[in-house]
Design a protein that fits this description.
The structure holds two protein chains of two kinds. In chain A, the strands form two sheets. Chain A has a five-stranded parallel β-sheet, sandwiched between helices. Chain A has a single domain, classed as 3-Layer(aba) Sandwich (Rossmann fold). Helices cover 45% and strands 7% of the residues of chain A. Chain A is built from 19 helices and seven strands. In chain B, strands 3-2-4-5-7-6-12 form a seven-stranded mixed β-sheet, sandwiched between helices. In chain B, strand 13, helix 10 and strand 14 (290-293) form a beta-alpha-beta unit. The longest helix of chain B has 17 residues, at 211-227. The model of chain B has no long low-confidence stretch (mean pLDDT 97). Classes of the chains: A alpha/beta, B alpha/beta.
């Protein structure tokens, strides 16, 4: 979202800019008719209403409605931060049923992801691992919240910023860290690297390096669930940059056409590499609203507060499961590091003040710690203990990775063809590999 | 033995596999209610219904990717491309996803999918609808590439491809769909990676795949009748995996090789075969390895000129004669 990235002094301009843009009928259509509240949107109906109305009636711009919609968008940190202006998501049934142990578990998972990545960063900077390292630090609540909502029949898939999702669904640190080091003990045997963690036994299908390329795969997961009569849903993550890939639009259409049980979660951290949302999306007030053109429901939510994320995502996942329909949920989030660690301009396309503000005001782990302290679910000492354990686990994972052997040379030709690996009859006929 | 068309042979293969395995489904543009743009899937929607035979919008990247995702979950999608030329808008899904996921996941995932459709020139539809991508898809380790020339091979190779646990790019030919051939009743498989000697001969090996095999057979008849040259015709059937043994055995017998390929010459399938012969049959050869390929230009629209672009029997005969 454009606005979440604006510092307070600039944020006042956003509604004006947006209202100005609303003079364009296409924008008016998608926004002026939109209910301001998250989740409870019924874009399909809204679209129909637009169709029924004479085009002439579309012309008057309802600036107040638009401004209201923008101002109340829960994705905005300023909305989140303005006391009393937002719903207390802790009272949502999906959260009020949580036990203290669950809440502490979420904290542990977020801290494990952060400490894991900080360890990885240390060794990356020492040149001990290659490739790219797309850090998830700042976004941990999204993966942890999602994993907490999976019911054993749900499937998830994401892009290249995939460490958090992997750890959140239960992958162990050792093989994940070893994968970053390219070791044979890695979760993908050193063949995938940072962008390619997979754990199909935990319903986690990667880990994909090409922007947007995983979106139709996610649709395939949903298709398979429906085909097999399994009442689960697929959650396909993509970033704010990926919505501009053509295949995502194709997916919205097909998911709606085929009534697939899928939630596309746009983790909007504001920047597609170094290009801000203002410079990459013609419609700036939201990315999820593109779904409206495909008769797909959509909504926005903040990703900083775990309760808010769970309440919003939980509701749309349940809707996907029960109604077998797609949904697009745009989650406002923020990464502290660059697009990847190799992103030399990470602090040039945004101000250090902006990064600092997110770290101090909207850090999902700090917010959750405060929440749990307020609820007296945990003590400062308790938090310290969990954090120490996470740090120790990450350090041990790095030691494990460093001590692990490289993959064997023979393994270069393994895991290419299933039939060859399993020495089936089909794997024995003809030449499969052409190196001398 | 019943005589049926290449098209019917494929249709029978689908029907038999759809009946045998409930995880098999067909998907693509116009495959269901329209009965297939080339009628290869005719009657299947009526017989198997909308769950198994699925019409898609014109969104190759999305439905190819959806096939990959469904295959990861254990289904066996057979995805039709109306033309293989249309794969080019979905290559990310074929090469990066179908082709690489098994490797990048360290073998945790496999993608048992068939991607199929016609891949040929010669039908006056211009360059963008006449691509033959078998060479560059075979360039991706992880993918398999199959190009049947006859109804019998089409059915047996299709059944094997559907049962294969890796992604198979199955390339048919619109000019062959109406060809008749003997095809036994019931299911049978032809393993991928096994070439077929379609005609035996002692004087020269003609090595080809797809429709070029038929061109070679026609040329062989002319060579025998008019020039007393007995050509052996080796049908590769599958490009990857490749049956190098049959190729090398044939050349060891004839000591001459002419490679006939509707693929383009630059880094085409015939280039790979030529490299194989240079490395492993050098001492057997009595003449240089020669090639007859599609002319190295985009497929032209103009009908008489397009005919000149693809190998024909006379061109093969001339090339063979030049090697003696």
């Amino acid at each position: 979202m454009a606005r979440i990235l604006s510092l307070p002094s600039k944020s006042k301009k956003s509604p004006k800019t947006a209202a100005k843009k609303a003079a364009r009928p296409s924008v008016t259509r998608s926004v002026a008719k939109k209910p301001a509240k998250a989740v409870k949107k019924a874009p399909a109906k809204a679209t129909k209403a637009v169709k029924v109305a004479k085009p002439v009636k579309l012309a008057p711009v309802k600036k107040p409605a638009k401004a209201k919609a923008i101002a109340s968008a829960p994705a905005s940190p300023s909305a989140t931060s303005s006391a009393g202006s937002r719903k207390d998501f802790s009272k949502d049934p999906i959260n009020s049923s949580l036990k203290p142990a669950d809440k502490i578990g979420f904290l542990r998972e977020m801290l494990r992801i952060r400490r894991f990545e900080q360890q990885a960063l240390k060794y990356y900077n020492q040149g001990l691992m290659g490739g790219f390292l797309h850090l998830y630090i700042g976004q941990e609540s999204v993966a942890v919240g999602t994993a907490s909502l999976m019911n054993g029949k749900d499937e998830i898939i994401t892009a290249y910023r995939d460490h958090g999702h992997g750890l959140a669904v239960g992958m162990e640190m050792n093989p994940c860290m070893a994968e970053l080091f390219g070791k044979g003990t890695g979760c993908s045997k050193g063949k995938g690297g940072s962008m390619h963690f997979f754990a199909p036994d935990k319903h986690y299908w990667g880990g994909h390096g090409i922007v947007g390329g995983q979106a139709p795969l996610g649709m395939g997961l949903a298709f398979a669930l429906k085909y097999k009569g399994i009442k689960g849903c697929a959650v396909a993550f993509l970033g704010d940059g990926a919505v501009n890939q053509g295949v995502f639009s194709e997916c919205l259409n097909m998911a709606a056409l085929f009534d697939l049980p899928i939630v596309f979660v746009i983790e909007n951290n504001g920047y597609s590499m170094g290009t801000s949302l203002e410079r990459s999306s013609a419609i700036r007030h939201s990315l999820a609203s593109r779904a409206e053109g495909f008769d797909v429901d959509w909504s926005l939510c903040g990703g900083f507060d775990l309760y808010e994320l769970r309440a919003n995502l939980g509701a749309v996942m349940e809707k996907a499961r029960s109604k077998s329909r797609p949904h697009v949920l745009e989650v406002a989030t923020y990464r502290y590091y660059g697009h990847s660690v190799a992103d030399a301009n990470a602090k040039k396309y945004r101000s250090p003040e902006e990064i600092e503000r997110y770290k101090t005001e909207f850090d999902p782990i700090t917010l959750w710690e405060k929440q749990l302290l307020k609820e007296k679910v945990i003590t400062e000492a308790g938090i310290e203990k969990i954090d120490s354990e996470a740090k120790a686990e990450a350090a041990a994972a790095a030691e494990f990775a460093i001590a692990s052997p490289w993959p064997s040379e023979e393994s270069i030709f393994e895991d290419i063809y299933h039939e060859v690996d399993h020495k089936t009859e089909a794997g024995q006929t003809g030449r499969h590999f052409f190196s001398e | 033995m019943p005589v049926i068309t290449y098209r019917q042979a494929l249709n029978d293969a689908f029907a038999e596999e759809l009946t045998r395995d409930e995880n098999v489904f067909l998907m693509g543009e116009e495959v269901a209610q329209y009965n297939g743009a080339y009628k290869v899937t005719e009657g299947l929607w009526k017989r198997f219904g909308s769950k198994r035979i699925i019409d898609t919008p014109i969104s190759e990247a999305a439905f190819l990717g959806m096939g990959v995702g469904a295959a990861m979950m254990g289904l066996r999608p057979v995805v039709e491309l109306m033309f293989w030329s249309f794969a080019y808008v979905g290559l990310d899904q074929i090469i990066n996803n179908a082709g690489c996921i098994r490797y990048m996941s360290g073998g945790l995932i496999n993608v048992p999918m068939v991607i199929r459709g016609p891949a040929n020139g010669g039908t006056n539809v211009g360059a963008t609808h006449s691509h033959t991508p078998e060479n560059f898809l075979a360039n991706t380790p992880g993918l398999k590439v199959v190009c049947p020339a006859t109804p019998y091979d089409a059915k047996g190779l299709m059944i094997s491809s559907i049962r294969d646990n890796d992604t198979v790019c199955f390339m048919e030919n619109t000019l062959l769909y109406g060809d008749l051939g003997e095809v036994p009743d019931g299911s049978y498989t032809i393993p991928l990676g096994v070439a077929d000697v379609k005609r035996e001969g002692l004087d020269v090996s003609l090595i080809a795949h797809g429709r070029a095999v038929l061109t070679c057979l026609a040329a062989a008849e002319i060579l025998a009748a008019e020039h007393g040259i007995e050509a052996e015709v080796v049908d590769l059937r599958s490009i990857r995996p490749l049956d190098e043994e049959t190729i090398l055995n044939s050349v060891a017998k004839t000591h001459r090789a002419v490679l006939v390929d509707e693929n383009k010459p630059f880094c085409g399938v015939s280039s790979q075969i030529a490299a194989l012969l240079a490395e492993h049959a050098f001492d057997e050869l009595d003449a240089p390895v020669l090639r007859v390929t599609a002319l190295d230009a985009p497929a032209i629209y103009s009908m008489p000129l397009e005919k000149l672009q693809l190998p024909d029997a006379q061109a093969v005969v001339a090339k063979v004669l030049s090697s003696f």
